[in-house]
Amino acid sequence: MIPPRTFEDPFDIPALDSALKSTPFSGNLRYFPTIHSTNTLAMQEAEAGAPEGMVYFADEQTAGRGRGAHSWQSPPGSGLYVSILLRPRIAPADVLWLSLAAGLAVREAVHQTTSLKADLRWPNDLLFGRRKFCGILTELNAEVTRVRHLVIGIGINVHQEGFPEELRPLATSLQIETGKHWPRQELLVALLKAISRESHALTNSTGLGEATQSILNRLETSSSWIRGKRVQVEEGGGYTGTTAGLDRRGFLLVQTANGLQTVLSGGVREL
């Protein structure tokens, strides 16, 4: 049995607005005690004209989504479930860099809040050891040459004290890793500030080269998955190999017995 939660960790919206006054997100926060999916609502409102910088976050999701057909467990009061609406001035082909930068932003926020250093599994899962505590889902609406809007959905396991038996080898939380309760409000502020910095660097530079090189350099030092990891790739019928860095677009390269392969969308798991 998973022990019940016996504490509260509410959000203080006015305090959040004040702490985020240097970012595009201040005054654009929408909190829900419960919601089907923050990403679904954010995409719907973006299509209806919601401005850049809207942030949708919830205490509980009843239909949280991960990459592919995966769901994301979002029990009440246990995690940080947040979706961020952006309208970046970048080409659709460059969106992966923003998704990778979001992973770095989560890693920075978690380290700032807890001193823990997470591992990044391409493209944007965050782990402690082999157990995942955060997933990121980036969705967009785009034309051939421009992005109309983009939503970064982030789910972080914060207060979970345990998981069902089948998930224990795969999932963890900040509470499990440290034995401490970490305020979600503090984590959310650190996260949104980091997202603001990453987005600004990518969309306001004279060229993407410097910003993407910074992302690549930081991934090389903060992820054990970029080079030298033996992996199983769930793409094109599946194959195995050793990770060999990222290409100039941010896609993962895997050296296989049949040559160098580029992972475009498939999941990557350690052998």
TrEMBL record:
State the Gene3D superfamilies in the record: 2.30.30.100, Bira Bifunctional Protein, Domain 2 (3.30.930.10)
Q: Reaction(s) catalyzed by this protein?
A: biotin + L-lysyl-[protein] + ATP = N(6)-biotinyl-L-lysyl-[protein] + AMP + diphosphate + H(+)
What cellular component terms from Gene Ontology apply here? Answer: cytoplasm
Keywords noted in UniProt = Biotin, Ligase
The EC number(s) attached to this protein equal: 6.3.4.15
GO MF terms on file? biotin--[biotin carboxyl-carrier protein] ligase activity
Domain annotation BPL/LPL catalytic: ranges:
14-203
EC class name: ligase
- A Pfam family found in this protein is BPL_C
Which protein is depicted?
Answer: biotin--[biotin carboxyl-carrier protein] ligase
- Species: Acidisarcina polymorpha
